[in-house]
Amino acid sequence: MTPRLDGLAALEGRGELGYSPPVRYYLETFGCQMNVHDSDRMEEVLHAHGWQNTPTPDEAELVIFNTCSVREKAEQKLRSEVGKLAPLKAARPALVIVVAGCVAQQEGERLLKQIRHLDLVIGPDNIPELPKLVTSQLGGSPKTARTEFDLVETHFLASSPQGGKTPVSAMVTTMKGCDERCSFCVVPYTRGPERYRPVDEIIADIARWVEAGSREVLLLGQTVDSYRDSSLPSPNTGDPDESQFPFLLKRIAKEIPTLARLRYTSPHPRHATPSLARTHAELDVLAHHVHLPVQSGSDRILKRMIRRYTREEFVERARRLLAARPDMTMSTDIIVGFPGETDDDFEATLSLVREVGFTALFGFKYSPRPHTPAKKLADDVPEVVKAERLARLFAVIEEQGATHLQSLVGTSQEVLVEGASKMSRAEMGLRRVQGRTVRNEIVHIEVPREAHVEGQLLNVDVVRANKHSLEGQIERENLARFRRASQSESPRRALPIFAS
Fold first, then answer.
1. Which of 103, 180, 246, 255 might form a disulfide with 67, Cβ 3.0–4.6 angstroms?
2. Residue 380 burial (10 A CB sphere; 0-12, 13-18, 19+)
3. pTM for this one?
4. pLDDT tens column, 38-56
5. Taken in order 274, 416, 175, 310, is the CA torsion positive or negative?
6. Could you count the other beta carbons within 10 Å of the beta carbon of residue 113?
7. Going from the N-terminus, what domains does the chain have, and what CATH number goes with each?
């Protein structure tokens, strides 16, 4: 095979043949928070190799799509985006195009055959090999699919946060894979069986983020509350669904006392045990919100989904968690139009949403996924019925969410400021930032333009409820102190925020 001339120039940049500028890469992410986390680790691996990111594919020697295959729509979007690069690849044959993530794991070699201008397919467990594999492609190696699970020697990529560049809320993985085998879900095939990260590695990762400036950590796992580690105490409850996840949460709270908030996603309802509820009641660092996926409110459909709990059991576990704190809230995931779902089954789902009192949810129309048991079932709910049910589901949750947000108007809330607000309007001399309450509500706030508030906890008066967020004002005393400080400080210097 004829080597790629541009690729050889890139090799020179690593000192193998001489010198040239480092490889420029473009990375686009599809899917869940786990995919975002994986993309962050990819960037760290590439940066450690001396490579630099670029905002568009047109400027890159390397283009990476990190993909999700949980929903058919996400997979279709990926194929569309990769397809758009065909003209660019024809004009610049040395361009290396990579598909990573769940679609890569799911399709492997087939993806290389289906997309002729694709060069490399790499699974989630093979991220550490990315620079080496790309280097081979730049040197003219054949198209490659690398999708091996690390079952023998499991490894987790440690984070490399940089002070001053860290997010307010950092993501830390605790496990990978899933053993649940829900009939609709492709995750066990694309992420493999459950493997747990050692507790000391998790603690060290969180400590690095906090030391670098992050205030909140989101623990990630496909079934995050199934966590196990032999160094932690045994539950000794006799409950087969009990895990060591509560002990992990307590260990984090004890060893990293400067952590402002701790969240986790996504737990499986089977492991939402009394021990987990008690942990929420005991640990102030834990957010007063849980995302607990239910998928359906019908026992018949739950059985077909192989969810391994009944409606009654889910409601009991949800209520136990909600009772752990007076202001606890809960969100969920729901699939409509699962094979065989009748009108009565769907009505049972709507009644469950009302009974539990979810304040938010992610709703999806069922779509058959490769390698799943449900793919053998007839996809017998018409698309128009799926769409109508999804619309009705959203109408119910919109009403419940609006009622909840309206109930917070006139209250004082502690808000962890994350960054600039997506609602950018602001009065003269002010700028808008946004953050989240201890539950999970987004709050938009106006602060003095020079004030440095990112990563700070602010006491905020809620003055208005939007459709999916709140509007807040800094408590009057603090705002006055802000204005006095702004009159005496240099405009180039960031001003501190005061929380009463």
1. 103
2. exposed
3. 0.88
4. 999 999 999 998 999 999 9
5. positive
6. 12
7. 5-146 (3.40.50.12160), 169-407 (3.80.30.20), 412-488 (2.40.50)
